[in-house]
Design brief:
Largest sheet: 5 strands, mixed
Strand order of the largest sheet: 2-8-7-6-5
Shape: globular
Bound molecules: 4'-deoxy-4'-aminopyridoxal-5'-phosphate
Number of helices: 9
Structural class: alpha/beta
Distance between the termini: 71 Å
Strand content: 5-15%
Length: 356
């Protein structure tokens, strides 16, 4: 026997580039351009000598109160990646394939591989939407982002319900990383009382401007959350560090600031979308803090590389279908103005339309 033959076979997820140069306009990893609430950053003397509360009780309670659920319905983790990974490990143990869209968060197939879960990706339609009917067959579980990434498209709640109705015997994970940028009432959270197999996953990384802290959470039935806790405590009890617990609670407490920042980004997204369309870009309808856009006459890769050379970072995916698009995070108004200026000046795009 040779140990090399028994290394777990994996093709890791590739995160977006994190340039060191802070002059870069960084629109490649869907970070929030605004800082978290100033209240989050007020001084706090962390007792680093001691272990944190393994249940992260204060944070769990704050999240539970915020969403009007019991604290036994909340699971917290180190970013939603940790929460999603833990959910895959907990629930996806059948021999049937789990289902997710082919154009979607590219971490799903990575977890399927690392945990050796059979999986099947389901093509999104011609216009990049998820078709609920495609998720109704026998399966080992279902997972999809809503709104989807990298398309930005929101699946209406009645279609989410359709997927849940057709999957009473499977766990359905709705990854709501970007839901705060969608119209109110779009979340699957309101469906929780009807479905004990639903798990809604959220993050503090986007709408709450705390990607650097790493806080994610899931809300589900007590039974579903208890199953995840059991796996977590079989792996690492102290996932949440003390600053995450304290700063996470403070972020939840300043709801006015949170809502204001989200509104600001949504307004910038709409303005930026209009400017792109004006230049002839096709922009998929976004309910997130990014847009997925492509131009019919200038290859996306060309725009991506030229922008990168000019200190503007977008995200580009080279796979078929999505290779015609760029995923552009919504930054501040000033940043997006610079992007618009760059596109107008550097690309030979539809010159007649540029000056009206
Ligand atoms: N889900 C989706 C759809 C995402 O785009 C991301 C961000 N890469 C995540 C989950 C994970 O985000 P985080 O771990 O920062 O919460």
């Amino acid at each position: 026997m040779n140990w090399r033959e028994y290394i777990r076979p994996v093709t890791p997820y590739v995160p977006g580039e994190q340039p060191r140069d802070n002059r870069v306009i960084k629109l490649n990893t869907n970070e929030n351009p605004y800082p978290p609430s100033p209240k989050v950053m007020e001084p706090y003397d962390f007792p680093l000598r001691k272990y944190p509360d393994p249940t992260a009780g204060d944070l769990v309670q704050a999240i539970a109160d915020y969403h009007g659920v019991d604290k036994e319905q909340v699971f917290v983790g180190v970013g939603s990646d940790d929460v999603l990974g833990m959910a895959f490990l907990t629930f996806f143990n059948s021999d049937l394939p789990i289902l997710f869209p082919d154009i979607s968060y590219s971490f799903y197939p990575v977890w399927a591989e690392v945990f050796q879960i059979p999986c099947r990706s389901i093509p999104v339609t011609e216009d990049f939407t998820i078709r609920a009917e495609d998720y109704l067959g026998e399966n080992g579980g279902v997972v999809f982002p809503n709104p989807n990434a990298p398309t930005g498209i929101l699946l209406p709640k009645e279609n989410v319900k359709q997927i849940l109705d057709g999957n009473r015997d499977s766990i359905v994970i709705v990854d709501e990383a970007y839901i705060d940028f969608a119209p109110e009432g779009s979340s699957a959270l309101s469906l929780l009382p009807e479905y004990d197999n639903l798990l809604v996953v959220r993050t503090f990384s986007k709408s709450r401007s705390m990607a650097g802290l790493r806080i994610g959470y899931a809300i589900g039935s007590r039974e579903v959350i208890a199953a995840m806790q059991a796996v977590k405590y079989s792996y690492n009890s102290y996932t949440m560090n003390q600053p995450s617990i304290v700063w996470g609670v403070r972020s939840i407490q300043d709801d006015a600031y949170f809502r204001e920042m989200v509104q600001k980004i949504v307004a910038t997204r709409e303005r930026f979308t209009a400017a792109l369309q004006d230049m002839g870009f096709r922009v998929l309808p976004s309910a997130t803090n990014f847009v997925f856009a492509g131009h019919p006459s200038v290859p996306a890769r060309e725009i991506f590389e030229k922008a990168r050379g000019n200190g503007i970072f977008f995200r580009y995916f080279s796979q078929p279908r999505v290779c015609d698009f760029l995923r552009i995070t919504i930054g501040t108004d000033e940043e997006m103005d610079q992007v618009i200026r760059f596109l107008r000046e550097n690309l030979d795009i539809n010159p007649k339309k540029l000056y009206h």
